[in-house]
Specification:
alpha/beta; Alpha-Beta Plaits; Rossmann fold; five-stranded mixed β-sheet; binds S-adenosylmethionine; NSUN5_RCM1_N; RNA binding; RNA-binding
């Protein structure tokens, strides 16, 4: 039953702290799984895809009544998984040794199969593939991105060891037609695209942490922070770190000197374990001091304790509305439920995001702070940026939005300029310039999740307040905002 018990937890929409990420990342980042994450993902994905039909078959076959009579306790989700395997999987068998639940379900095999046949007749379907589902194959990512982890290896070595991936081509289109090709990305160094069916996760390089699966847009923050060779960051902070994609990516940019470090903060106790596992795998024993993890709320840190930190990545919890892989889970939510979460929730999230960013902008030597979300909503993106730019303490300390040339200038999609009118009024050029300090990625259309990043830079202007005065102002975040953050912690 282990496989089904492990898969069961992923069948319901994520209710823990944070967004939890896409279904795929939730499963692949769960450190405690005994079964292969790939196997579990395939099972959960397919069960969710056919869930509506499985429910109908279960109801019509009256199998639940039999299970109750036999006093066999089985949750609905577990039953969906088992019935899925019996009817919808290619092997058509329950992956379970001898077990009373298996026996009880197999006693009903004929009835279950009869209901399945009726369903196929109703939809004139020859196989499960022809049945209508809420989830089209469009919900699958058109391309899978991975980066060669330069802490452990080099692209040259990786390609030498994996000659299968030898056909390097520039990624001219995100529509990869077939496995067998590998595409170099135009924007992020050491990032490659492959067909989603490519078996990367079984390669020794993946298992050893030499390559890391990471969405392209999610690689933007570390790249924006570290792209400029004149910025010699040695100490940086990742304020909201788990599961650690951006932490490990940031670490890969640091010079390999003894004092180079990424301070990674994570306040959630479960997620901090995943962060530790990922960082250990990515750095290995040789570079184990490259990342220092602290299990704490980032806003409780004292910026004066980090006098050498010059750059920060702030990727706080958000609505996760850009994660299209989640469509399969969203398909389970009632429309009404979806509507209810909107504006109020987004504003609460924005309040929290503002608070974390304001804290990040207090670090005395910081000169660059990259803010990001995987949300498509302006509430959590440009509007947070505008509120920060209009904040009197932040203005006084010399923080500004960076110019486009230091924020992946060739990437075509920038911030939404209309959102900046509160700052620049009708001055189109100024709005455009501000929007240029931000990048956006559209879900699917840009070959991955929806994403937003903005880069703040500090110019040493003469009129700015001394940093210690700013530090004293951190406590002006009112109690209401504190409460919101507490409440908020249920989202990501
Ligand atoms: C969007 S996720 C970060 C994803 C991560 N940057 C990555 O690329 O793998 C946000 C994370 O921030 C954590 N978090 C939220 N508020 C925090 C705070 N005040 N201090 C530290 N961590 C926080 C959440 O628990 C969650 O794990």
């Amino acid at each position: 039953m282990k496989l089904y018990f492990e898969a069961e937890q992923f069948l319901s929409p994520y209710k823990g702290k944070g967004s939890g990420g896409s279904l795929q990342s939730r499963i692949f980042n769960e450190a405690k799984l005994v079964n292969s994450p790939k196997h579990i993902y395939a099972l959960v994905y397919s069960t969710l895809k056919y869930k509506e039909h499985i429910q109908t078959i279960i109801r019509k076959s009256k199998i639940k009544q039999t299970l109750q009579t036999k006093k066999l306790k089985i949750s609905d989700n577990l039953l969906f998984l088992v019935v899925h395997d019996l009817l919808f999987s290619s092997k058509g068998r329950i992956q379970l040794g001898k077990h009373p639940i298996k026996d009880a379900i197999l006693q009903h095999k004929t009835r279950l199969q009869a209901e399945y046949t009726k369903l196929k007749l109703k939809y004139k379907a020859k196989s499960a593939e022809d049945l209508p589902t809420n989830v089209s194959t469009d919900d699958e990512t058109p391309i899978r991105w991975f980066r060669v982890n330069t802490i452990k290896t080099t692209p040259e070595k990786f390609f030498k060891d994996h000659p299968f991936f030898a056909k390097l081509e520039p990624v001219s289109s995100i529509d990869i037609k077939a496995p067998g090709f590998i595409y170099t990305d135009d924007y992020i160094p050491n990032l490659y695209g492959i067909h989603p069916k490519e078996k990367l996760t079984s390669t020794p390089a993946y298992l050893k942490g030499e390559v890391i699966i990471q969405d392209r847009a999610s690689c933007f923050p570390a790249h924006i922070l570290n792209d400029d060779p004149s910025d010699k960051h040695v100490e940086i902070i990742d304020s909201c770190a788990a599961p650690g994609n951006k932490t490990t990516h940031c670490a890969s940019y640091l010079p390999r000197t003894e004092d180079s470090v990424v301070y990674a903060f994570e306040r959630d106790s479960n997620r901090v374990k995943v962060l530790k596992t990922m960082c250990e795998k990515a750095t290995g024993t040789k570079n184990k001091n490259l990342i220092q993890i602290t299990h704490t709320d980032f806003t409780s840190t004292n910026p004066q304790d980090f006098p050498n930190v010059t750059g920060l990545v702030v990727d706080p919890s958000c609505s996760g509305s850009g994660i299209f892989g989640r469509a399969i889970e969203d398909a389970q939510l009632q429309e009404q439920e979806k509507e209810e979460i909107d504006t109020e929730r987004l504003n609460r999230l924005a309040g929290f995001q503002f608070k974390i960013m304001k804290h990040a902008l207090l670090f005395p030597k910081a000169r660059k702070v990259v803010y990001s979300t995987c949300s498509i909503h302006p509430h959590e993106n440009e509007r947070v940026v505008v509120d920060l730019l209009m904040d009197k303490d932040i203005k006084a300390s010399g923080w500004q939005l960076a110019s486009r040339d230091v924020v992946i200038s060739e990437w075509p999609k920038r911030g939404w300029k209309e959102e900046f009118t509160a700052i620049c009024g009708g001055n189109e050029e100024e709005c455009e310039a501000l929007a240029g300090g931000c990048v956006r990625a559209t879900p699917k259309e840009d070959g991955g999740i929806g994403f937003f990043a903005a880069c703040f830079v500090k110019n040493d202007i003469k009129s700015r307040k001394p940093d210690n005065m700013l530090q004293n102002n951190t406590n002006d975040i009112d109690e209401e905002a504190e409460e919101q953050d507490e409440e908020w912690s249920g989202f990501d």
